[in-house]
Amino acid sequence: MADELQSKQGGMEGEAAVVADVVEDATVVAVGGGTVDPIDVQILAGSKGEEPTQIDQVEAEVEKEGVDAMHVEEAAVRRTPRSRKQVERIQVEPLQPKEEWKVPVGPGRKLSDIDNVAYLLGKLQRKDEMLKVLHNLMYRRPASYKVIKNNVLQFSGFVYPEGTKQTEREKDEAKLDAKTIPELDEILRILDLPRGKGEGAYKAAKIKRILEFLDGPVATNNRSLAQLEQKKKGKKSVARKRSRKVDTPQSGKKTSTAKPATPAKKAKVESEKEWDDRLSLDSDEPLIPKKPEGPSDAVIKDTIAEILKTKDLSTFSMKDLYRELGDKLKFDARARKAFVKETAMKIIQGS
Length: 351
Hints:
It is a single chain. By secondary structure, the chain is mostly helical. It is built from 14 helices and no strands. The radius of gyration is 57 Å and the shape is elongated. The protein starts with a helix and ends with a helix.
C-alpha cells in the first residue's frame, strides 16, 4: 500500500514538473511579448472540466502575468519618445532692386529747350491720350501719368539699340501709319511742324516729317507762340472793354453796363453812321465810293479756279488763297475779300 502511494506521489510530481516546465516556457514567451493559450496548458496538465488544482492556479497566474507583460510592452511602445526632425531653415535671398530706367540722351535738343514745343506740351494734361502716343513713339514703352509728361519734355532724339535701327524704324512707321490724318495733324501741331501742302499733305509725307524731326529735334519756327497768344489775349481784353458802355456815375443813379452789340446790329450801325458822314454838309466823301482798283471780277474768278485745282483743300486756307492770288495778279486781294471768299466757296461747291 505504501508503495502505491509513493508511486502515485511520484507520478504527480512528474506531471507537476512537466507543467512547471510548460509554465516556465510560457512565462518566458509572455515576457518576450507572446501570449499563453490556456487550452494548451489544460491539455498538458490534463485538467479538463475538473475542479481547480494546483496546476490550474499556476495556469491562472501565468496567464495573468502574460497579459500584464503584454500591457507593459504596449505601454512602453506608446511611451517611446518620438524622434525629432532636424529643423530646415529656409534661406531667403534678398530681392535684387530693379534697375531704374533713365531717359536716353539723343543727338538733338531736348523738347523742353524748344520754346514752342515746350509751350504746346505744357498745355496738355498729364493724363492726355496724346502724351501716351508720343511717349510710346519716342521710347517704345509706356509710363505712369506721374512721369510721362516730364519724360516727353526730356526727349532729345531716337536712340536705337545696336543693330536694330532698321527694324525699329519700320515699327515706328507702322505706329504712325495706324493713326488717322487728324491725329497726325495733332502730333504735327504739338511738335510745331507744318501740316503740309500739296504732296506734303499726304499721310506718308506727314509720317516722314514727324520721324525726321524726332531723329534729332530742333527749333523749326522763329516766332514765339507764347507771345502771339499773349497778344491775342490782350487784344480781346481791349475789345471787350471797348464794347462795354458804362454810364457816368451821377447822384442817385447806378452805373449800368450795356451788352455788346451783335455783329449784324454793329454792321448796321456802322453803315448808317457811314451814310450820315457822307451826307453831312462838312463831308468830302463821295456819295457812291469808287470801285477798288485791280483786276476784273472775271479775271479774279478764273485765277481762283486755277489755284484751287492744284491745292489740297483740307489744308489750304483762305489766308493762303489771298496771298497766292495777290502774288499772281499783283494786287491786294484783301481789298476784295468778300468777293474772293464768295467766289471760292461757289467754285468748291461746284456752282
